[in-house]
Design goal:
475 residues; alpha/beta; 7-stranded mixed β-sheet; 6-stranded mixed β-sheet; globular; binds adenosine-5'-diphosphate
């Protein structure tokens, strides 16, 4: 753990298993309530001086982090792949994302503008100043261990906040590596602190502390709801990026080759372990057979293997529970009448024997009763559903609960406008499987989240607006 600029050890260890081999990859120290409290105290102590620094000085430190991330990209990518299994090319992209976030928010630090407001009395002047919210509790997931820390810490630090970070138990080493970078650039002690401790203990400590003024969380909707409720006690600010259940819609006028190729990117990239990953593929009934054939041909070529191999596209899933959930979803769908066109197997032979490997899968004739129609699968499974009209599609596609990312393939401009406006999703890619860039606001609607990360809006969640009215003698 990294608390108040020092490395803290305990007698309790947390083992991290490499999902490709089943072997222990890292052993890290585990703390408890006392370490969380120390970390909060350190962040409280560091807050005043950090917030008081000119924005440019904070920005310069963030730019130094950018430099180190660039220099250490390959090593960091290997740590990510070792801990959570994603293919190394995706881990490299993840480090690039982190670079983008630190760079963007280093630039944004200088643009935290206030306002002057017209007065209502001639001896008064009104202004709105924006100030950092204070100590931030950041809880991060295992699927993007470095990029999600970057997406939270870069705006927090740029705004002048200090932070306590709790990483997922699957990926503590990535978080430790980030702390080493902060230490190397000389970030003042206490500005960022890392605690590795049981999730509930950290959650409760954050919730009970009135010093923690904001929670930023990326993870499941279930845990997000608990944290949202807990934050009510001290009326903390919250921002949450929660589960998704992305639809990928292929209309009859779409470029089918493009759609099939792009589906690979939203479905099989990062082994399908992304909250923006496609979970339902809606294809117009007139093209469902030809599209399915094209997709199956492409999926047969998808290389499964140890994430460390440069040509791996689908690596092992993060853990046994993740693998079992994927297998359960496919079995349930098959039992209820879905056709397994390719894949549908836990891979157990040869090099796969000790890892959590699932074969890239395409299912057809998927219907609403099936588990994977309603729950996030988080694995390499593409379930195809056919639809007959745009009206039917819209009423089906807007999921009751989730509203994170969605993708639509069509060459019809009028349809594009109609559909994009009706989709109840925070992000829509039209003929684009990757709409996510640092300058665009990332976030969901409904139970997929609160607040936006990245973009010029991303720093707002870390700032309070304060009204100041100055009455003066008119001379
Ligand atoms: P996933 O199912 O993808 O692992 P989770 O929501 O369980 O998603 O985990 C996301 C992050 O939230 C992890 O860092 C996890 O340890 C943490 N977490 C889980 N439960 C709690 C809790 N009750 N309080 C605080 N953090 C939690």
């Amino acid at each position: 753990m990294f608390i108040n600029g020092e490395w803290i050890t305990t007698d309790e260890k947390l083992e991290v298993t490499n999902p490709a081999t089943g072997k222990i990859a890292y052993e890290v120290h585990m703390g408890g309530r006392s370490e969380v409290n120390q970390a909060i105290e350190a962040a409280v102590g560091a807050f005043g001086p950090w917030a008081d620094l000119p924005a440019l000085q904070r920005a310069d430190l963030l730019l130094e982090v950018v430099g180190l991330l660039k220099a250490e990209k390959e090593r960091l990518a290997k740590v990510i792949t070792t801990e959570m299994g994603k293919p190394i090319r995706d881990s490299r992209s993840e480090v690039n994302m982190a670079i983008d976030y630190f760079r963007w928010f280093a630039e944004e630090a200088r643009r935290v503008y206030g306002e002057t407001v017209p007065h209502s009395a001639s001896d008064k002047r009104l202004m709105v100043i924006r100030q950092p919210v204070g100590v931030v509790g950041a809880i991060t997931p295992w699927n993007y261990p470095i990029a999600m820390m970057a997406r939270k810490l870069a705006p927090a630090l740029a705004a002048g906040c200090t932070a306590v970070v709790k990483p997922a138990p699957e990926t503590p080493q990535s978080a430790i590596e980030m702390m080493k970078l902060f230490e190397r650039v000389g970030l003042p002690a206490g500005v960022v602190n890392l605690v590795v401790a049981p999730a509930e203990v950290v959650g409760v400590a954050f919730m009970e502390s009135s010093d923690v003024r904001k929670i930023t969380f990326t993870g499941s909707t279930e845990v997000g709801k608990k944290l949202y409720a807990g934050a009510a006690n001290t009326v903390k600010r919250v921002s949450m990026e929660l589960g998704g259940h992305a639809p990928f819609v292929v209309f009859e006028d779409a470029d089918l080759d493009l759609a099939a190729e792009d589906l690979l990117k939203t479905k099989f990239r990062c082994s399908g372990e992304m909250c923006t990953a496609t979970n339902r593929v809606y294809v117009h009934e007139s093209i469902v057979d030809s599209f399915s054939e094209k997709l199956v041909e492409k999926v047969k070529e998808v290389k499964v293997g140890n994430g460390m191999d440069d040509d791996t596209v689908v690596g092992p899933l993060v853990n046994r529970a993740g693998l079992e959930k994927v297998a359960r979803h496919v079995e349930d769908a098959a039992r209820q009448g879905a056709d397994v066109l390719v894949g549908g197997e836990v891979l157990l032979e040869g090099d796969f024997a000790n890892g959590n490997y699932y074969s890239p899968t395409v299912l057809k004739n998927v219907s609403k009763e099936m588990q994977l129609y309603n729950e996030e699968t988080f694995g390499p499974v593409a379930p195809i559903i056919s639809f007959s009209s745009e009206e039917e599609l819209i009423s089906e596609v807007n999921h009751d609960q989730y509203g994170l990312a969605s993708y639509v393939y069509t060459e019809d401009m009028s349809r594009t406008i109609r559909v994009m406006e009706k989709l109840e999703y925070g992000m829509v890619g039209i003929n684009d499987p990757l709409p996510f860039v640092v300058q665009g606001p990332f976030g969901g609607m409904k139970e997929s989240g609160l607040g936006k990360e990245g973009s010029r809006h991303g720093i707002d969640d870390y700032l309070e607006k304060k009204l100041v009215s100055i009455r003066f003698r008119k001379g």
